[in-house]
Each structure stands twice: as C-alpha cells, then as structure tokens.
Amino acid sequence: MSQTVVLKVAMPCEGCVGAVKRVLGKMQGVESFDVDLKEQKVTVKGNVEPEAVLQTVSKTGKKTSFWGADEAETAKA
C-alpha cells in the first residue's frame, strides 16, 4: 500500500541533500521523494514503512525525526 512519510532532517548544505537523495534512490519501494533544504523537510511516497524510511535516512548521519514529532513531544511535557 502506498503511503507518504514526512521527515525533519538536519541538512545544512546541498551535499547533505545529495546524501539523502542517494540513500532514498536506492531504497526499495520508494516511488518518489522531495527534499526541501530550506524547510529541512523530506517527503517520501511509496510502498514503504515509516520506520524503515527513518532508519535509512538516519544512516546519512543527519539528525532525523518524523515531521511534527518534536512538537508532539513538547505537547506531552
């Protein structure tokens, strides 16, 4: 089943964007993705598990979390 996963990824430069694009391009099940450097946002569409996408992007060494997760943690406190 196709779904959309949105991540917040700390990407200070275009090189970081390239690293994220490389790992997503190799990931099985990914149909499309968009990397927004300005927003620090990565949107992935495809037959993928959200946790698997998070783990794959984390392999680039960039701080990665689900979009809105920081706000949810703050709201719980």
UniProtKB/TrEMBL annotation:
- What Pfam family does this protein match (any one)? HMA
InterPro entries documented for this protein: HMA_dom (IPR006121), HMA_dom_sf (IPR036163)
Q: Which GO terms describe its molecular function?
A: metal ion binding
Name the UniProt key words of this record, in alphabetical order. Metal-binding
Domain HMA positions: 2-65
The protein, known as:
HMA domain-containing protein
* Organism expressing this protein natively: Brassica carinata
Q: Which domain of life is it from?
A: Eukaryota
